Amino acid sequence: MDFYTSANVVSVRGTTIPSGIYKVKAVYDSNQWTLVMKQVAGDGITPPKPHSDLFELPMSVKAALSQSATPVISLEPIAQTCTLHMKWQLSQASVEFAGKWKDLPTK
After folding, report:
1. Which among 30, 61, 90, 102 has most CB atoms closer than 10 A?
2. pLDDT digit string (tens) for 40-65?
3. What does DSSP say about strands 20-29 and 81-99: parallel, antiparallel, or unpaired?
4. How far is Cα 47 from Cα 40, in angstroms, rounded to an integer?
5. Cβ burial, residue 35 (10 Å; 0-12/13-18/19+)
6. Is the pLDDT of residue 4 over 60?
7. Is the sign of the CA dihedral 99, 97, 82, 43 positive or negative?
8. Cα separations (Å) of 43 from 1, 5, 6, 26, 95?
9. Which residues, other chains included, contact 35 with Cβ-Cβ below 8 Å and sequence gap of 6+?
């Protein structure tokens, strides 16, 4: 999946993600989900840097209300933030983002 941001964003856990285009995948390991983001371009035109940025963001996990045989990805905008949800089988993982200078709610 591709993830594009035209401004710097920050995850709820404090990792700053520079503007750009990223390849995104979720990695599941021993009941822990991690969102892995690899920058492939800075502005959509420029080729990727030889040492592209790689970010690994821990995801919040909870039991899904129903089973999903195929992965389902959704974005949920709420006020000044946006939450990326990934649901697969009996798990739902999520990570929240906001603009670099926005306040994120504490959880």
Report:
1. 61
2. 877 656 666 666 678 888 999 888 88
3. unpaired
4. 7
5. buried
6. yes
7. positive
8. 17, 9, 8, 23, 23
9. 24, 25, 26, 55, 56, 57, 59, 84, 86, 93, 95
Between CA 57 and CA 45 the distance in angstroms is 26
Q: How far apart are CA 27 and CA 38, in angstroms?
A: 13
Which amino acid does the sequence have at 20?
Answer: G
How far, in Å, CA of 58 to CA of 27, rounded? 10
Planar angle of CA 98, 100, 101, nearest 5 degrees:
100
CB 26 within 8 A of CB 4: no
pLDDT tens track for 9-42: 777 677 888 878 888 888 888 778 898 988 887 7
Which token pair is 4?
């594009």
